[in-house]
Amino acid sequence: PEAITVQELANRMAARGGEVVKALFRMGVMATLTQSIDADTAELVVQEFGHRVKRVSESDVEIGLEGAEDTDTDLAARPPVVTIMGHVDHGKTSLLDALRKTDVVAHEAGGITQHIGAYQITVPDGSKVTFIDTPGHEAFTAMRARGAGVTDMVVLVVAADDGVMPQTVEAIRHAKAAGVPLIVAVNKIDKPGVKPERVKQELLQHEIVVESLGGDTQEIEVSATQRINLDKLLEAISLQAEVLDLKANPNRAAEGTVIESKLDRGRGPVATVLVQKGTLKQGDIVVAGAEWGRVRAMLDDKGRQLKDAPPSLPVEILGLSGVPSAGDNFIAVENEARAREVSEFRQRRARDKAAAAAGAGRGNLTDMLA
Ligand code: GTP
Ligand code: MG
């Protein structure tokens, strides 16, 4: 039963059509603005946008106005989410480690520092920055394809002694395709005889023009291991964040993306999620990918137990039924019945997609044999 076109659904939610297309894509549904989707699918989209749903008839969906699209007054500033990318061995992990040591509150935490794929630091001026460890280009591509849009900017690490390499170019391509600004960190400037100038020239060939050459890409020369210019890099990030004017509504049901996940022997399924909208609370019922559960415990990157996680904070959550995939969307829902419904819907979608792919494969084989 065709219920509503994507455009009409977007209009009713006062959302952008493209956002609805993206949400559908995340759910495994490929649809254009003019295409119709069934009421079940529409209802899930509506839910994912944080609206209430009222079924007028079996096939029609009415969207409740309560919890409607965030207005300007709902929005509050949120910390930037920065992904570090670059060629292998250029110093991504070293830089993340070095930046983490600049955290002015890390020492107060007293908790055990655990290695999770994302962390948030507080810089001396009191503002916060979230860093995501390079999730591997594949994972980044997957997240982008799902429209997850986790990162606000990319810090591109280029080793001064090695210059622009294939994965550097790939990272530039990803950042451009995702439409996120890029900051260049020329690393390892402590090494004798290195020529950071050469890196700038090489970047030109990939249409990255740094400020010192008259362009608009910020570029900082750093040494991760010698801790040179880390403050300048953080300043560059703050400046970029200011330009982006990043905001989210902290007062709504949480929504975000799974950064990484694992099955822990003692703790069961553990997922590191980035809260992008709303505030995730301990005890919330969430659906992550096709898995769901009640958030039994929530920990930050310093191992502290949290009751609330606001936008841009990466947290580890315990209590899911299974292990979701990196890049999966997660949402907090009102009750277990709803969680089950969404989870079943996503599982069904995944099965249908797999079946369709297998079907297409058979078709090709038949074509080949014909
Ligand atoms: P992959 O995760 O394997 O892609 O590497 P990476 O980009 O995370 O690089 P990593 O931080 O592991 O650093 C690679 C090597 O470069 C290590 O031996 C680091 O000690 C060294 N290194 C990183 N930063 C610097 C630096 O600023 N100066 C010098 N001299 N060496 C550095
Ligand atoms: Mg590394």
TrEMBL record:
<dbReference type="GO" id="GO:0005525">
    <property type="term" value="F:GTP binding"/>
</dbReference>
<dbReference type="GO" id="GO:0003924">
    <property type="term" value="F:GTPase activity"/>
</dbReference>
<feature type="binding site">
    <location>
        <begin position="133"/>
        <end position="137"/>
    </location>
    <ligand>
        <name>GTP</name>
    </ligand>
</feature>
<keyword id="KW-0648">Protein biosynthesis</keyword>
<keyword id="KW-0342">GTP-binding</keyword>
<keyword id="KW-0963">Cytoplasm</keyword>
<keyword id="KW-0547">Nucleotide-binding</keyword>
<keyword id="KW-0396">Initiation factor</keyword>
<feature type="domain" description="Tr-type G">
    <location>
        <begin position="77"/>
        <end position="247"/>
    </location>
</feature>
<comment type="function">
    <text>One of the essential components for the initiation of protein synthesis. Protects formylmethionyl-tRNA from spontaneous hydrolysis and promotes its binding to the 30S ribosomal subunits. Also involved in the hydrolysis of GTP during the formation of the 70S ribosomal complex.</text>
</comment>
<protein>
    <recommendedName>
        <fullName>Translation initiation factor IF-2</fullName>
    </recommendedName>
</protein>
<feature type="binding site">
    <location>
        <begin position="187"/>
        <end position="190"/>
    </location>
    <ligand>
        <name>GTP</name>
    </ligand>
</feature>
<feature type="binding site">
    <location>
        <begin position="86"/>
        <end position="93"/>
    </location>
    <ligand>
        <name>GTP</name>
    </ligand>
</feature>
<dbReference type="GO" id="GO:0003743">
    <property type="term" value="F:translation initiation factor activity"/>
</dbReference>
<comment type="similarity">
    <text>Belongs to the TRAFAC class translation factor GTPase superfamily. Classic translation factor GTPase family. IF-2 subfamily.</text>
</comment>
<dbReference type="GO" id="GO:0005829">
    <property type="term" value="C:cytosol"/>
</dbReference>
